[in-house]
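Consider the subject:
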Amino acid sequence: MMLCGEASAQQPQSGFYTGNRLLELCRGGQGICHGYIAGVASVMGRNTVSGWAACIPSGSTVGQIRDLVVKALENNPQERHLSAESLVASYLAEAFPCR
């Protein structure tokens, strides 16, 4: 997945987790993984996150969004050292662009 647009996921780790740690948490269970991804998605409903904006369709479930993020993390190991917040925001912005 190539990241493009106005923002860049090339944010150094400044948050709590990297993409590596988030993927590890997601593979280990749903608790923190679901909460972290849902938190970023929820904030993106009203604000940008790390410069990214997403328009997530109503009716989308946390499970769907989690699956999207996990798949993107698995498919892009070269990015996983970056901030999880920036990565999740960029993946959601790419999947659900605002028109």
Summary: Residues 1-8 have pLDDT under 50 and may be disordered. Helices lie at 19-28, 31-44, 62-75, 84-95.
